[in-house]
Amino acid sequence: MLEDITPFIVMEVLEKAQEMERQGINIIHMEVGEPDFDVPYCVSEAVVNAVRNGQTHYTHSLGIPKLREAIATLYYEEFGVSFSPENIVVTSGSSPAILMVLRTLCDVGDEVLVFNPGYACYANFVRAVNAVPVNIDLCPEDGFRIDIEEVKKKITPKTKAIFINSPSNPFGALIEPEVMRQIAELGITVISDEIYHGLVYEGKAHSILEYTDNAFVLNGFSKRFAMTGLRLGYLVAPTKYMRTLQILQQNLFICAPSDAQMGGIAAIEEADEDVARMCAIYDERRKFIVEGLKRLGFKIWTEPVGAFYVFADARMFAADTYKFAFDILENAHVGVTPGIDFGSQGQGFLRFSYANSLENIKEGLARLEKYLKTL
Ligand SMILES: Cc1ncc(COP(=O)(O)O)c(C=O)c1O
After folding, report:
1. Residue-range domains of the chain with CATH
2. Which of 62, 94, 112, 208 could link 192 by a cystine bridge, Cβ 3.0 to 4.6 Å?
3. Residue 108 phi, psi (nearest 5)
4. Whose CA is nearest to atom 14 of ligand 1?
């Protein structure tokens, strides 16, 4: 139901921080999940050229064919999985793709499984299509690992799908191949959010398509290619749903922005070195922030290996980390995300984003240290 949709708390923290900045207060942002890098040069060139050359019109509703071919090639090269460009819908960021998948799969009252903690918006997208999000609780003491037996217990005749996300927000963790296989074998449709693919520092990410065809893949250009504001994402879907998805896309969104799509082609074809450079920098920050947070007394039950987040246990400092996050913002001038944004199991935790310069992260931790001493 619409009234059940909860605020995206990280945005509330950000908006409060921006209000403080307008009053002249310097804030260190560790709340937002947005790369601090500019788009790779090849992307900005492609976007500018697209605009200058008049590629500013509606495209095919499913996306420019060359972009869809590039996406299919990317998946083949990275995971050895083959699908046709005809199975791709290019979207304005991955968020509209989430909405379209759920609208395609769910009737009123159907259930969709989501991990708790997990990406804040999944449950709200489920509610937006009048379906019901069903939580599968993850425990810090187990390193927030997925226990497949717990997942099975939540499946009912109304279950339409399960969301997975690897590397994950908020943990930066990878789902092990064996667990991916077990999820694929549950017999329910898997919605695999692969948006943090490409940002992996230890181990290897897998695509759900290596394990099952009964799956929708969500992915996009926001994180890997630092293209958040260009709003470009995509959905890979089983053939039987493609016509419905195309009709939804035509009616709801028409098509993704044409210039961003041209940027997307350049990103896939030419930005490998930029991605490697950004990854090396994220990795350095990751090591620094994990050590820094531990030194300040936070406990980290699952150390991040991908994306750009650390989910830190702050229960030794505060039971209610919603209030604590706003206290930190007001007193230490550091933006952090309350764990409750990711579900009830996130209470007592804070999510730190290291999509900020090493210099700012150092300053943020120093401010935090000073503040914690006053408690
Ligand atoms: C796990 C996850 N999925 C999807 C999104 C949405 O990204 P976008 O709409 O920019 O593609 C985000 C953004 O933070 C995310 O963290």
Report:
1. 2-39+273-373 (3.90.1150.10), 55-271 (3.40.640.10)
2. 208
3. -55, 130
4. 33
Is the Cβ atom of 169 under 6 angstroms away from ligand 1?
yes
Query: Quick one: which atom of ligand 1 is closest to the CA of 168?
Result: 1
The tens digit of pLDDT for each residue in 225-272 reads 999 999 999 999 999 999 999 999 999 999 999 999 999 999 999 999
Give pTM, 2 decimals: 0.96
* 7 — pLDDT class (breaks 50, 70, 90): confident
Query: What is the C-alpha to C-alpha distance for residues 212 and 154, in angstroms, rounded to an integer?
Result: 20
CA 95 – ligand 1 centroid, Å: 6
Distances (CA, A) of 165 to 155, 162, 204, 206: 19, 10, 14, 10
Banded pLDDT at 6 (limits 50, 70, 90): confident
* Tally of helices (H runs) and strands (E runs) in the chain: 12, 12
Which of 10, 14, 91, 121 for mutating ligand 1's site (highest number of atoms within 8 Å of CB)? 121
